Amino acid sequence: MASRVVVIGGDAAGMTVAAGLRRRLSTHDEVVVLERGTWTSYSACGIPYWIAGDVGSPEDLVARTPAEHLANGIDLRLGTEATGFDPIARTVSIQDGKTLTYDRLVIATGAEPVRPDLPGIHGDNIYGVQSLDDGQAVIDALARKPKHVVVVGSGYVGLEIAEACVARGFDTTVIEQAPTPVSIVEPVLGEMIAEAMRGQGIKLIVNTGVTGFALDADGRVSAVTTAMDEVAADLVILGLGVTARSALAEAAGLPLGVKGGIVVDEHQRVEGFDGIWAVGDCVVTKDRVTGDLIHLPLGTHANKQGMVAADNIAADVLGEAATLAFPGVVQTSITKFCSLEISRTGLGEKQARDAGFDPVVVSIETTNFAGYMPDPGTMTVLMVADRASRRLLGAQIVGAEDAALRVDVAATALAAGMTVDDVVMLDLAYAPPFSSVWSPILVAARAARKALDG
What we know:
Layout lengths: L3 E5 L3 H13 L5 E6 L11 H6 L13 H6 L3 E4 L3 E5 L4 E4 L4 E3 L2 E4 L3 E3 L12 E3 L3 H12 L5 E4 L3 H12 L4 E4 L11 H13 L3 E3 L4 E6 L5 E6 L3 E3 L2 E4 L3 E3 L2 H5 L24 E3 L6 E2 L6 E2 L4 H20 L14 E5 L2 E7 L2 H6 L4 E9 L10 E9 L5 E8 L7 H9 L4 H5 L15 H14 L1
Parallel strand pairs: 1-2, 1-7, 2-3, 7-18, 9-16, 10-11, 10-16, 11-12
Antiparallel strand pairs: 4-5, 5-6, 8-17, 13-14, 14-15, 19-20, 21-22, 22-25, 23-24, 24-25
Helix pairs in contact: 1-8
């Protein structure tokens, strides 16, 4: 008997599910995707670089166009917004008042920028950046030559947007509530980032929360207000992170976790709701170090979860055993500010304490290749280990070119549950143009070992 799978959302996770199903299922089985916008399969992570001018057009950020998905046999319906779904009747309501029945449902509604309920937050020229349409709105606003750009928040997106604005010659201020920017790294590394930001002409205001937005007579933002002052602004970009776009799931009674993320199992199934899966930025996933459920919206995870869900749904339709599961994450991320590279994985010191570990933290400075080679760059590597078990808990890197990707070694070690002693003995590549004889991660692991033994 033919079946119909309906996918709500047509970006990375949703279209990965749809494409995977189309490859596995019979042409008699329907794969329908409802996408409220006009874009599919695009890189939201690339939007700051499009705003900066490093990427020429939004089309350059699209991995697969709607036309390509349609040609592959997916029933893709653009400009079609799902307004609700009924898990009992197995129907999806669409904005035109129609309903669509399904045999299996995939929720891939993504995430949305945090917009705190502050006075003036809905004024003109205040933007979040999550979709290509958001990116175009910011580019259009910059084309109007604002005198003062203010970025609220200095996480990865806020940092990248600030770099884009100052690189284009705009007077740029960043307001951050924490003591240092990029608060997911330790303060000692955050100070290095702050120095780099100020060195590029960014006005960085830290330890300061935003209390509202002043608007002019036409409803346009004119200033960002804090407890202490007003900061002139005729363009504001919010970099306060995102929450899961899960209103449809909440209305249908699905289980939600931190930041509204839908709770799923390792096969992306929504437990207790037969025939429903959820993937991507709208779900929570397991932290492999702590076992906690966290919300970590990244395209890397969205694509993997989509692949897992497609495998599980196809197996369900075909009466086969599923072969894939999503094991969780170790919170690996990477970015840069101008020439300064930044990466992290696992837990920081406070996260480790909050999770019940007794953390030992070490920090080392080293070069990105042998010091006797011409013009070696420097980096700081911070490592966190558990005192009792000697288990590696996390690593963070800030440094010159070729520094940040070293964190992938630590991420792999975290996934394998390795101790710092195990890490010291890893067989990593060495030649003078690429590394010192002791790789930076190994140098940090040796320091952690010494601290544990001391």
